[in-house]
Amino acid sequence: MNIKPAVMEATSPQPVAGVQQVLNALADPVRLEMVRRLRNAGVPMACALLYDGINKSTATHHFKTLREAGLTERLVIDGQTLQRLRVDEVDAAVPGLLDSVVTGANREAASHTGS
Fold first, then answer.
1. pLDDT bucket at 113, cuts 50 / 70 / 90
2. What are the angstrom distances between the C-alpha of 93 and each of 5, 14, 31, 34, 99?
3. Listed residue (18, 21, 36) closest to 93, CA to CA
4. Residue 109 is inside which H or E element, if any?
5. What's the Rg (C-alpha) of the chain?
6. Would the pLDDT of 1 be above 80?
7. Which residues span the domain enclosing 21?
8. Does pLDDT of 100 surpass 80?
9. Structural contact between residues 44 and 83, judged by C-beta atoms closer than 8 angstroms
10. Residue 9: inside a domain, yes or no?
11. Which residues are 82's β-sheet partners?
12. Does some domain include residue 31?
């Protein structure tokens, strides 16, 4: 049995952008849902688990927008690409933003599912 240690690569994270760019990134419903899922999970997640109803190339565009705003970073672990929400970095740059936005998005999501 050959067990290899986990290999992890991370892209160099962008600094968290200014408030306007961060808010613009979060204004899109698909990107907001990606951030909501990441925040609720609290751990890096596989890209495909972060969206529904869009194709992979569109998702790639949304991930790039989130990375450029400094909200997320891409990790490659054992060949699998994951997205990580940069909670500490975003909170340092824009205190309270993620909690407020995700709380509102969770309420909205719950109202759509009847929960």
1. confident
2. 34, 12, 19, 20, 13
3. 18
4. helix 97-113
5. 15
6. no
7. 15-101
8. yes
9. yes
10. no
11. 46, 75
12. yes
